[in-house]
Amino acid sequence: MSKQTIYDRYKTGEIYDGKRAVWVPQPRQEEFMRRTEDEVLFGGAAGGGKSDALVIEALRQITKPWYKGLILRRTYPQLKELIGKSRQFYPQIDPKAEFNKTEHTWYFSSGAQIIFGSMNNEDAKYNYQGQAYDYIAFDELTQFTFPMYDYLRSRNRPNGPGMRCYMRASANPGGIGHGWVKEMFITPAPPMTRMLKEVVVENDDGSVETRRMTRIFVPSKVKDNPALMRNDPNYIFRMAAMSEAEKKALLYGDWDSYVGQFFSEWKNDPDHYRDHIGTHVIEPFDPPEHWRYYRSFDWGFRKPFSCGWWAVDRDGVAYRIHEFYGCKRDRPDTGVELNPSEVFAEIAKLERTHPYLRGREFIGVADPACWNRQTGKSVAQEAAEQGVPFTKGDNERVAGWIQCHERFKFGPDGRARIRIFKTCRDFIRTVPALMANEHHAEDVDTTGEDHIADEFRYFAMRNPCAPLKRPPPDPRRKNPAHTILDVPIEDL
């Protein structure tokens, strides 16, 4: 892209083509719309002009009569704003375009279509079964689960010759899909860095084809939207006045802090991995043999299973020293479908061979459901036969989450009573990403990837810790959030 953007040329009057342009991308929107990757995530903070870009990008191929574009939100009421944007721009682009309110579809003079759709639950993804869309856009991608997004990938295919098939999305931090979106677009590479993934397809004749799929994250913040800043200069200050979590997520696009985060205490500060101050993630070390050792477990077959190993020091501080998580690679929240005997044989092998585990005696605690006998042996019996015994965990959810919160809190010395080895990648990926249940704030949203959190909860209930003692507030301290101005109201 040249240093002079389309937006710059528009402001100087270069882009008119006989009449004023209907819509011109601002610099960061232009960067997003120039991308050629298969999948692009646009966003990070609120107010960056993301939704406008998705709605306009859908117009790219409307001159092709067989073109079909799809723009998605989680619920239909959330689509109203996007449809409103389309009503503002689409008729100016094609005066003969018509919007069918019942079908939520624009029909263009060429025969092309742009559909506005929703998926309010995972089963709703099958409403798109058998369909093909050249362009698929998710507005607020973190409101969707990975299976929803993954299924729609299979619908991203050409409706005619010469079509470009690609997917685009916008997102702010937070939401039920925060974890998998962060893992797919944010964690692997810095912003504006193209990521490659080799996909292998085996043909009927035994031959193999390989193709590189590409994705990228294009960051956007409120200051990337000069039109908004010009029309409402106070917008950024209203955002700055929000709670700390909201401000970090929506103003600064911080993917480690966001509204609705269940474990808002979570901190991952690489600068303090060695001194353990102000961070839950630390450098691994070989723990002393005289510490107490635990093994916690949550069973899963089509969903992931999770086994975590813990060392507890003489002060009661718990260290997560290793984990074994049965999740398919590149498919969050999807189990590897191993039978119990295979899982526990591997766990037994790890306890014989892993340098942090071998030679230790473990106290095992597991989900009480492991003792259910639907057919044949229970999961717990399979474990015992492999030399990996467990006792029933306490499955009281609210009390368990309180214990988890207590361990995450930082004491007066700046250290928490739980510390996670940085090698426990799936704990670090899934537990901080959990959202609070919108109907029961003291519980997690179980539609998230909560298997490691459940296993952690069983361990926390087996090793309860007392609440941290906080010093009483100083009654002399003034609240800096409230300042009384002794100024006549007419002068304000």
Tell me what the structure shows.
The protein has 492 residues and is of the alpha/beta class. The chain has 14 helices and 18 strands. The strands form three sheets. It has a nine-stranded mixed sheet with strand order 3-4-5-2-6-7-1-9-8, sandwiched between helices. Strands 10-16-13-12-11-14-15 form a seven-stranded mixed sheet. α3 (50-57) crosses α4 (76-93), α10 packs across α11 (379-385) and α12 crosses α14 (451-462). The radius of gyration is 26 Å and the shape is globular. The two termini are 46 Å apart. Mean pLDDT is 88; it is low at 480-492.
The protein's oligomeric status is single chain
For the largest beta sheet, what order do the strands appear in spatially? Answer: 3-4-5-2-6-7-1-9-8
Largest sheet: 9 strands, mixed
Q: Which class do the helix and strand fractions yield?
A: alpha/beta
User: Rounded to an integer, what's the Rg over CA atoms?
Assistant: 26 Å
| Average pLDDT level | 88
Number of strands: 18
Uncertain spans:
480-492
Inertia-based shape: globular
Counted by DSSP, the helix tally is 14
Question: Ends: how far apart?
Answer: 46 Å
Helix-residue proportion = 25-40%
**β-strand amount:** 15-25%
